Amino acid sequence: MYDGRLRKLELKLAESGLDAFLISNPHNVYYLTGFYGALGGDQFFLLVAPGEAVLPVDFRYLEEAMEEASVRVVEWKERTFNELVLLLPEGTRRLGFEADALTVDQHRRLEETAEVELVPTSRVVGSLRLHKDQVEIERISMAAALADAAFEHAVGILEPGLTERDVASEIECFMRRRGADKPSFETIVASGSRSAIPHACSTGKPIAVGDFVKIDLGASIAGYSSDMTRTVVVGEAAAEQRKIYKTVLTAQAAALELIGPGVSCREVDAAARSIIDGAGYAGRFAHGLGHGVGLEVHESPTLSPKSDEVLEPGVVVTIEPGVYVAGLGGVRIEDMVLVTGDGKEILSHAPKELIQI
Q: How does DSSP classify residue 206?
Protein backbone atom coordinates (compact mmCIF):
# COMPACT_ATOMS: atom_id res chain seq x y z
CA MET A 1 0.00 0.00 0.00
CA TYR A 2 2.69 2.49 1.01
CA ASP A 3 4.95 1.56 -1.91
CA GLY A 4 2.09 2.31 -4.30
CA ARG A 5 1.56 5.72 -2.73
CA LEU A 6 5.26 6.54 -2.99
CA ARG A 7 5.34 5.51 -6.67
CA LYS A 8 2.43 7.88 -7.39
CA LEU A 9 4.27 10.65 -5.57
CA GLU A 10 7.44 10.01 -7.56
CA LEU A 11 5.47 10.47 -10.79
CA LYS A 12 4.27 13.84 -9.52
CA LEU A 13 7.84 14.85 -8.67
CA ALA A 14 9.00 13.94 -12.16
CA GLU A 15 6.18 16.01 -13.67
CA SER A 16 7.29 18.97 -11.54
CA GLY A 17 10.98 18.58 -12.39
CA LEU A 18 11.96 17.89 -8.78
CA ASP A 19 14.94 15.72 -7.88
CA ALA A 20 13.75 15.16 -4.30
CA PHE A 21 10.94 16.17 -1.98
CA LEU A 22 11.02 17.09 1.72
CA ILE A 23 7.75 16.28 3.50
CA SER A 24 7.05 17.85 6.88
CA ASN A 25 3.26 17.61 7.23
CA PRO A 26 2.84 14.85 9.86
CA HIS A 27 -0.30 13.45 8.23
CA ASN A 28 1.55 13.14 4.93
CA VAL A 29 4.48 11.38 6.63
CA TYR A 30 2.05 8.87 8.11
CA TYR A 31 0.15 8.47 4.84
CA LEU A 32 3.34 7.60 2.93
CA THR A 33 5.13 5.48 5.55
CA GLY A 34 2.66 4.02 8.06
CA PHE A 35 4.73 5.49 10.91
CA TYR A 36 1.99 6.31 13.42
CA GLY A 37 4.43 8.15 15.69
CA ALA A 38 4.44 10.97 13.15
CA LEU A 39 1.02 12.01 14.46
CA GLY A 40 2.24 12.39 18.04
CA GLY A 41 3.11 16.08 17.90
CA ASP A 42 6.87 16.10 17.33
CA GLN A 43 8.41 17.28 14.06
CA PHE A 44 9.34 14.65 11.50
CA PHE A 45 10.71 14.91 7.98
CA LEU A 46 10.49 12.42 5.14
CA LEU A 47 12.85 12.65 2.17
CA VAL A 48 11.52 11.16 -1.05
CA ALA A 49 13.55 10.71 -4.25
CA PRO A 50 13.15 8.38 -7.23
CA GLY A 51 13.40 4.83 -5.91
CA GLU A 52 14.05 5.78 -2.30
CA ALA A 53 12.40 7.30 0.75
CA VAL A 54 14.24 7.99 4.01
CA LEU A 55 12.76 8.73 7.43
CA PRO A 56 15.29 10.20 9.92
CA VAL A 57 14.24 9.90 13.59
CA ASP A 58 16.04 10.43 16.88
CA PHE A 59 16.59 7.71 19.50
CA ARG A 60 13.19 8.32 21.13
CA TYR A 61 11.35 7.04 18.06
CA LEU A 62 13.93 4.76 16.46
CA GLU A 63 12.52 1.42 17.63
CA GLU A 64 8.92 2.41 16.89
CA ALA A 65 9.80 3.71 13.44
CA MET A 66 11.77 0.56 12.60
CA GLU A 67 8.68 -1.49 13.44
CA GLU A 68 6.05 0.63 11.73
CA ALA A 69 7.57 2.54 8.82
CA SER A 70 7.62 0.99 5.36
CA VAL A 71 10.63 3.10 4.29
CA ARG A 72 14.31 3.19 5.24
CA VAL A 73 14.72 4.55 8.76
CA VAL A 74 17.97 6.21 9.87
CA GLU A 75 18.95 7.64 13.23
CA TRP A 76 18.90 11.44 13.28
CA LYS A 77 21.41 11.91 16.07
CA GLU A 78 21.84 15.66 16.30
CA ARG A 79 18.51 16.66 14.68
CA THR A 80 20.27 19.27 12.52
CA PHE A 81 19.61 20.28 8.95
CA ASN A 82 23.23 19.49 8.17
CA GLU A 83 22.45 15.82 8.87
CA LEU A 84 19.25 16.05 6.87
CA VAL A 85 20.96 17.49 3.82
CA LEU A 86 23.50 14.67 3.83
CA LEU A 87 20.63 12.27 3.10
CA LEU A 88 19.83 13.97 -0.21
CA PRO A 89 20.70 11.86 -3.27
CA GLU A 90 23.88 12.85 -5.04
CA GLY A 91 23.18 15.27 -7.85
CA THR A 92 20.07 16.81 -6.27
CA ARG A 93 19.53 20.26 -7.76
CA ARG A 94 15.85 21.01 -7.09
CA LEU A 95 14.35 20.10 -3.71
CA GLY A 96 10.61 20.52 -3.28
CA PHE A 97 9.10 21.34 0.11
CA GLU A 98 5.59 21.74 1.51
CA ALA A 99 5.06 25.49 1.65
CA ASP A 100 2.14 25.18 4.07
CA ALA A 101 3.99 22.93 6.53
CA LEU A 102 7.62 24.11 6.69
CA THR A 103 8.11 27.05 9.05
CA VAL A 104 9.90 30.24 8.04
CA ASP A 105 12.74 29.42 10.43
CA GLN A 106 13.09 25.87 9.08
CA HIS A 107 13.15 27.21 5.51
CA ARG A 108 15.87 29.69 6.46
CA ARG A 109 18.04 26.98 8.05
CA LEU A 110 17.49 24.64 5.12
CA GLU A 111 18.40 27.39 2.68
CA GLU A 112 21.61 28.13 4.59
CA THR A 113 22.57 24.46 4.64
CA ALA A 114 21.48 22.93 1.35
CA GLU A 115 23.24 24.03 -1.84
CA VAL A 116 20.14 23.31 -3.92
CA GLU A 117 17.18 25.22 -5.27
CA LEU A 118 14.28 25.09 -2.81
CA VAL A 119 10.96 24.81 -4.64
CA PRO A 120 7.71 25.54 -2.74
CA THR A 121 4.82 23.18 -3.49
CA SER A 122 1.15 23.02 -2.53
CA ARG A 123 -1.04 19.95 -1.97
CA VAL A 124 1.24 17.50 -3.80
CA VAL A 125 0.54 14.73 -1.30
CA GLY A 126 -2.88 16.20 -0.51
CA SER A 127 -4.04 15.51 -4.05
CA LEU A 128 -3.15 11.83 -3.53
CA ARG A 129 -4.98 11.74 -0.22
CA LEU A 130 -8.16 13.15 -1.79
CA HIS A 131 -9.29 9.76 -3.13
CA LYS A 132 -9.56 7.24 -0.31
CA ASP A 133 -8.58 3.62 -0.94
CA GLN A 134 -10.41 0.64 0.57
CA VAL A 135 -8.29 0.52 3.72
CA GLU A 136 -8.91 4.21 4.36
CA ILE A 137 -12.64 3.84 3.72
CA GLU A 138 -12.83 0.98 6.21
CA ARG A 139 -11.05 3.00 8.88
CA ILE A 140 -13.21 6.09 8.30
CA SER A 141 -16.35 3.93 8.40
CA MET A 142 -15.25 2.45 11.74
CA ALA A 143 -14.64 5.96 13.09
CA ALA A 144 -18.09 7.05 11.86
CA ALA A 145 -19.76 4.04 13.52
CA LEU A 146 -18.02 4.87 16.79
CA ALA A 147 -19.27 8.46 16.57
CA ASP A 148 -22.82 7.11 16.11
CA ALA A 149 -22.44 4.97 19.23
CA ALA A 150 -20.99 7.87 21.21
CA PHE A 151 -23.98 10.04 20.34
CA GLU A 152 -26.38 7.31 21.45
CA HIS A 153 -24.45 7.09 24.73
CA ALA A 154 -24.63 10.88 25.17
CA VAL A 155 -28.41 10.87 24.70
CA GLY A 156 -28.64 8.15 27.35
CA ILE A 157 -26.85 10.17 30.01
CA LEU A 158 -27.89 13.72 29.12
CA GLU A 159 -30.12 15.39 31.71
CA PRO A 160 -30.72 18.85 33.18
CA GLY A 161 -28.01 19.93 35.62
CA LEU A 162 -25.11 18.24 33.87
CA THR A 163 -22.64 20.73 32.46
CA GLU A 164 -21.59 20.88 28.83
CA ARG A 165 -18.13 19.80 29.93
CA ASP A 166 -19.56 16.81 31.82
CA VAL A 167 -21.22 15.51 28.66
CA ALA A 168 -18.22 16.24 26.43
CA SER A 169 -15.89 14.40 28.80
CA GLU A 170 -18.20 11.39 28.97
CA ILE A 171 -18.38 11.25 25.17
CA GLU A 172 -14.60 11.30 24.83
CA CYS A 173 -14.11 8.64 27.53
CA PHE A 174 -16.72 6.46 25.82
CA MET A 175 -14.95 6.71 22.45
CA ARG A 176 -11.58 5.83 23.98
CA ARG A 177 -13.07 2.87 25.83
CA ARG A 178 -14.54 1.63 22.54
CA GLY A 179 -11.24 1.76 20.65
CA ALA A 180 -10.64 5.34 19.51
CA ASP A 181 -7.04 6.55 19.45
CA LYS A 182 -8.41 9.90 20.56
CA PRO A 183 -11.22 12.31 19.66
CA SER A 184 -10.62 13.63 16.15
CA PHE A 185 -11.16 17.13 17.57
CA GLU A 186 -12.25 18.64 20.89
CA THR A 187 -15.85 17.54 21.40
CA ILE A 188 -18.39 20.38 21.22
CA VAL A 189 -21.36 20.32 23.58
CA ALA A 190 -23.10 23.70 23.41
CA SER A 191 -26.45 24.33 25.10
CA GLY A 192 -29.09 27.03 25.22
CA SER A 193 -28.05 30.30 23.63
CA ARG A 194 -24.49 28.98 23.32
CA SER A 195 -25.66 26.48 20.69
CA ALA A 196 -25.92 29.48 18.35
CA ILE A 197 -22.10 29.66 18.35
CA PRO A 198 -21.09 27.36 15.47
CA HIS A 199 -17.79 26.21 17.03
CA ALA A 200 -18.42 26.84 20.70
CA CYS A 201 -16.13 25.29 23.30
CA SER A 202 -17.76 23.12 25.96
CA THR A 203 -17.98 25.01 29.25
CA GLY A 204 -19.17 24.59 32.82
CA LYS A 205 -22.62 25.90 31.90
CA PRO A 206 -25.34 23.62 33.31
CA ILE A 207 -27.76 22.21 30.74
CA ALA A 208 -31.31 23.37 31.40
CA VAL A 209 -34.85 22.40 30.42
CA GLY A 210 -35.79 24.11 27.16
CA ASP A 211 -32.21 24.16 25.81
CA PHE A 212 -31.09 23.14 22.40
CA VAL A 213 -28.00 20.96 22.95
CA LYS A 214 -25.70 20.77 19.94
CA ILE A 215 -23.25 17.84 20.04
CA ASP A 216 -20.40 17.82 17.50
CA LEU A 217 -18.10 14.84 17.92
CA GLY A 218 -15.67 12.60 16.12
CA ALA A 219 -13.36 9.66 16.76
CA SER A 220 -9.93 8.89 15.35
CA ILE A 221 -9.16 5.26 14.49
CA ALA A 222 -5.72 4.34 13.12
CA GLY A 223 -5.27 8.03 12.35
CA TYR A 224 -8.53 8.42 10.39
CA SER A 225 -11.23 10.81 11.56
CA SER A 226 -14.97 10.99 11.76
CA ASP A 227 -17.09 14.12 12.19
CA MET A 228 -20.79 14.11 13.08
CA THR A 229 -23.23 16.59 14.64
CA ARG A 230 -26.69 16.17 16.11
CA THR A 231 -28.89 18.62 18.03
CA VAL A 232 -31.42 17.66 20.68
CA VAL A 233 -33.85 19.54 22.92
CA VAL A 234 -34.07 19.10 26.68
CA GLY A 235 -37.77 18.94 27.51
CA GLU A 236 -40.51 19.73 25.01
CA ALA A 237 -39.42 21.73 21.96
CA ALA A 238 -40.98 25.16 21.43
CA ALA A 239 -42.58 26.04 18.10
CA GLU A 240 -39.60 28.08 16.90
CA GLN A 241 -37.21 25.30 17.84
CA ARG A 242 -39.26 22.82 15.82
CA LYS A 243 -39.25 25.16 12.84
CA ILE A 244 -35.48 25.64 12.95
CA TYR A 245 -34.88 21.92 13.30
CA LYS A 246 -37.20 21.02 10.42
CA THR A 247 -35.56 23.66 8.21
CA VAL A 248 -32.05 22.30 8.83
CA LEU A 249 -33.15 18.69 8.35
CA THR A 250 -34.90 19.54 5.07
CA ALA A 251 -31.85 21.48 3.88
CA GLN A 252 -29.56 18.57 4.63
CA ALA A 253 -31.84 16.11 2.82
CA ALA A 254 -31.80 18.33 -0.29
CA ALA A 255 -28.02 18.46 -0.28
CA LEU A 256 -27.65 14.72 0.29
CA GLU A 257 -29.95 14.02 -2.63
CA LEU A 258 -27.52 15.77 -4.99
CA ILE A 259 -24.31 14.05 -3.85
CA GLY A 260 -22.61 12.04 -6.58
CA PRO A 261 -19.56 11.97 -8.85
CA GLY A 262 -19.18 14.98 -11.11
CA VAL A 263 -21.47 17.20 -9.03
CA SER A 264 -20.29 20.72 -8.24
CA CYS A 265 -19.56 21.37 -4.56
CA ARG A 266 -21.03 24.84 -4.98
CA GLU A 267 -24.26 23.35 -6.35
CA VAL A 268 -24.66 21.07 -3.32
CA ASP A 269 -24.10 24.01 -0.97
CA ALA A 270 -26.66 26.09 -2.87
CA ALA A 271 -29.33 23.39 -2.54
CA ALA A 272 -29.17 23.51 1.26
CA ARG A 273 -28.67 27.27 1.49
CA SER A 274 -31.71 28.09 -0.65
CA ILE A 275 -34.00 26.13 1.70
CA ILE A 276 -32.60 27.86 4.77
CA ASP A 277 -32.90 31.28 3.15
CA GLY A 278 -36.43 30.52 1.95
CA ALA A 279 -37.53 29.60 5.47
CA GLY A 280 -36.61 33.09 6.68
CA TYR A 281 -33.16 32.32 8.08
CA ALA A 282 -31.02 34.10 5.50
CA GLY A 283 -27.70 35.05 7.08
CA ARG A 284 -28.14 32.50 9.87
CA PHE A 285 -26.08 29.88 8.00
CA ALA A 286 -22.72 31.60 7.72
CA HIS A 287 -20.33 28.67 7.19
CA GLY A 288 -19.77 26.29 4.30
CA LEU A 289 -21.95 23.21 3.90
CA GLY A 290 -19.12 20.74 4.39
CA HIS A 291 -15.55 19.59 3.90
CA GLY A 292 -13.46 16.55 3.19
CA VAL A 293 -12.50 14.17 6.01
CA GLY A 294 -9.68 11.65 6.23
CA LEU A 295 -6.41 11.75 8.13
CA GLU A 296 -7.37 15.32 9.00
CA VAL A 297 -10.82 16.30 10.09
CA HIS A 298 -10.80 19.20 7.60
CA GLU A 299 -9.46 18.30 4.16
CA SER A 300 -10.31 19.02 0.55
CA PRO A 301 -12.76 19.39 -1.03
CA THR A 302 -14.74 22.28 0.44
CA LEU A 303 -18.48 22.62 -0.15
CA SER A 304 -19.26 26.33 -0.03
CA PRO A 305 -20.59 29.17 -2.21
CA LYS A 306 -17.00 29.94 -3.25
CA SER A 307 -15.89 26.40 -4.10
CA ASP A 308 -14.80 25.54 -7.64
CA GLU A 309 -14.29 21.86 -6.80
CA VAL A 310 -16.22 18.87 -8.10
CA LEU A 311 -17.05 15.70 -6.17
CA GLU A 312 -15.13 12.62 -7.31
CA PRO A 313 -15.35 8.91 -6.44
CA GLY A 314 -13.43 8.00 -3.29
CA VAL A 315 -13.91 11.38 -1.64
CA VAL A 316 -15.43 11.53 1.86
CA VAL A 317 -17.22 14.76 2.79
CA THR A 318 -19.44 16.15 5.52
CA ILE A 319 -22.86 17.67 4.87
CA GLU A 320 -23.61 19.97 7.79
CA PRO A 321 -26.11 22.80 7.29
CA GLY A 322 -27.01 24.88 10.33
CA VAL A 323 -29.20 27.71 11.53
CA TYR A 324 -27.92 29.87 14.40
CA VAL A 325 -30.17 32.44 16.11
CA ALA A 326 -28.45 34.58 18.74
CA GLY A 327 -30.23 34.48 22.09
CA LEU A 328 -32.27 31.41 21.15
CA GLY A 329 -29.81 28.78 20.00
CA GLY A 330 -28.73 26.87 16.96
CA VAL A 331 -29.14 23.58 15.13
CA ARG A 332 -26.59 21.72 13.05
CA ILE A 333 -27.10 18.27 11.56
CA GLU A 334 -23.99 16.67 10.08
CA ASP A 335 -23.38 13.38 8.30
CA MET A 336 -20.31 11.92 6.60
CA VAL A 337 -20.78 10.77 3.02
CA LEU A 338 -18.61 8.67 0.71
CA VAL A 339 -18.86 9.57 -2.98
CA THR A 340 -18.96 6.35 -5.00
CA GLY A 341 -18.64 5.62 -8.71
CA ASP A 342 -22.39 5.79 -9.20
CA GLY A 343 -23.70 7.79 -6.27
CA LYS A 344 -23.01 7.92 -2.55
CA GLU A 345 -22.92 6.00 0.70
CA ILE A 346 -23.94 7.77 3.89
CA LEU A 347 -21.54 6.72 6.65
CA SER A 348 -23.32 8.38 9.61
CA HIS A 349 -26.35 6.53 10.96
CA ALA A 350 -27.32 8.22 14.21
CA PRO A 351 -31.04 9.15 14.25
CA LYS A 352 -31.99 12.50 12.80
CA GLU A 353 -35.57 12.93 13.97
CA LEU A 354 -35.88 15.60 16.65
CA ILE A 355 -34.97 14.01 20.00
CA GLN A 356 -36.59 15.54 23.09
CA ILE A 357 -34.98 14.45 26.33
A: B
